[in-house]
Automatic annotation (TrEMBL):
Signal peptide: none annotated. Belongs to the fatty acid desaturase type 1 family. Residues 328-387 form the Cytochrome b5 heme-binding domain. It comes from the Eukaryota. The lineage of its organism: Eukaryota, Fungi, Dikarya, Basidiomycota, Agaricomycotina. This is Acyl-CoA desaturase. Pfam families: Cyt-b5, FA_desaturase. Its cofactor is Fe(2+). GO terms for molecular function: iron ion binding; stearoyl-CoA 9-desaturase activity. The keyword Oxidoreductase applies. It catalyses: octadecanoyl-CoA + 2 Fe(II)-[cytochrome b5] + O2 + 2 H(+) = (9Z)-octadecenoyl-CoA + 2 Fe(III)-[cytochrome b5] + 2 H2O. The keyword Flavoprotein does not apply. Its main location: membrane. InterPro entries: Acyl-CoA_deSatase_haem/ster-bd (IPR009160), Acyl-CoA_DS (IPR015876), Cyt_B5-like_heme/steroid-bd (IPR001199), Cyt_B5-like_heme/steroid_sf (IPR036400), FA_desaturase_dom (IPR005804), FADS-1_CS (IPR001522).
Length: 416
């Protein structure tokens, strides 16, 4: 039922991209066969992991943060390393990948987003890759990519390069220690399968799983699991708010090996101009979301009546009413303490015998200096304002409401 619901979110399908299906089905099949029939060789396993890092950094530090977002500058040797790493992941050319990703950022969560999250997890993970539809990526400026000779050369020769760096090279190297089948099954196919689905998780679960600490208008979310799967790309809420930042993880303790890799490259003189969003503006986004949460908590609490909503009561009326119910005057406000008689620490008699009297001095230390909690509770018992009465400075607002989250709305009728 859940899978059927996911398919229901798909756009009308016009065909199947059979080449992509062959890669995404055939590659894991070979990997699974290897798990059953090809024994592990520790050198092949170590090489496969190292080549996996090569592929993933090619995507995260190369295709994504360097070419899609221009978040730092890389020297030419580093560019070659990263673009070949990206090609070895067999996810399309850098030119195609970066243009699509820029479109995703410009048109997030709309029909012009190539991996629109409203289409469901299955569509954003692999559906958009293997099915043809009428959906088209929204327009973006990719003129810099069109002028980049390395990006364009690898785009023109993508398929032979992908065949060599994605399959042939990782399969051939383990043959040097007589483990050709291990190279094919583990270094080539198993590595690719993991790299594919970890990268696809950026488009799928990173838009569904986690929190929105910087903005909740769009779907991107932050989660450690997403970051763990994607070499640090899982702090997606941060990334969509501050896409030009070379970091995905802003906080020092968050897991972002791609950030550490880029910083290490800078230390080695291979990268420069690492761009960061102003920390003051990042703090604004984080504060906004915290205030939003606090506003929800605030709205769920019962507060003292607004002063403007309280009736104005004369001294004479106050005296008459205090004969029938216990009313106390504190700071210019008339309080009905009927519901508190049995709970008052000083006893029922103290409240009833002082009904109709001004107890401001007693409340503020003449008899007992009451706590903030007592002030807050007393404000809930306000039933009127004494005509001509005065409230001492800063005593009209209960302590709990000194800090209060207010909502302001922009006037969209005015033009600048």
């Amino acid at each position: 039922m859940a899978i059927a619901a996911e398919f229901h979110k798909f756009p009308p399908i016009e065909g199947v991209r059979w080449f992509n299906v062959a890669v995404l089905v055939g590659t894991p099949l070979v990997a699974v066969c290897g798990l059953f029939f090809v024994p592990f060789n520790w050198r092949t396993v170590v090489f496969a992991f190292a080549y996996y890092l090569f592929s993933m950094f090619g995507i995260t530090a190369g295709y994504h943060r360097l070419w899609s977002h221009r978040s730092y500058n890389a020297c030419f040797p580093l560019q070659i390393f990263l673009i070949l790493g990206g090609i070895s992941s067999v996810q399309g050319s850098c030119y195609w990948w970066a243009r699509g990703h820029r479109s995703h950022h410009r048109w997030t969560d709309t029909e012009k987003d190539p991996y629109d999250s409203s289409r469901g997890l299955l569509w954003t993970h692999v559906g958009w890759i293997i099915f043809k539809s009428k959906l088209r990526s929204g327009p973006v400026d990719s003129s810099d990519l069109g002028k980049d000779p390395l990006v364009q050369w690898t785009h023109r020769h993508y398929f032979p390069l992908a065949a060599f760096f994605g399959y042939a090279l990782p399969a051939l190297i383990p043959a040097l220690w007589n483990d050709a089948w291990g190279g094919i099954c583990y270094a080539a196919c198993f590595r690719l399968t993991v790299a594919h689905h970890c990268t696809f998780a950026i488009n799928s679960i990173a838009h569904y799983l986690g929190s929105t600490p910087y903005d909740d208008v769009a779907s991107p979310r932050d989660h450690f699991l997403s970051a763990l799967l994607t070499m640090g790309e899982g702090y997606h809420n941060f990334h969509h708010q501050f896409p030009m930042d070379y970091r995905n993880a802003y906080l020092w303790y968050q897991y972002d090996p791609t950030k550490w890799f880029i910083a290490a490259c800078k230390g080695l003189g291979l990268a420069s101009n690492l761009r960061v969003f102003p920390s003051n503006e990042i703090a604004k986004g984080a504060l906004t979301m915290k205030l939003k949460h606090l506003k929800q908590v605030q709205d769920s609490i019962n507060w003292a009546p607004e002063i403007a909503d309280l009736p104005i009561v004369t001294w004479e009326s106050f005296q008459v009413e205090s004969k029938t119910r216990p009313l106390l005057l504190v700071s210019g406000f008339i309080h009905d303490v009927s519901s508190f008689l049995d709970q008052h620490p000083g006893g029922v008699a103290y409240l009833t015998k002082n009904s109709g009297k001004d107890m401001t001095a007693s409340f503020f230390g003449g008899v007992y200096r009451h706590s903030n909690a007592a002030h807050n509770l007393m404000s809930m018992m306000r039933v009127g304002v004494l005509a001509g009465g005065g409230c001492p400075p800063n005593q009209s607002v209960p302590p709990s409401q000194v800090l209060f989250v207010a909502t302001r709305h922009q006037d969209k009728t005015k033009s600048v």
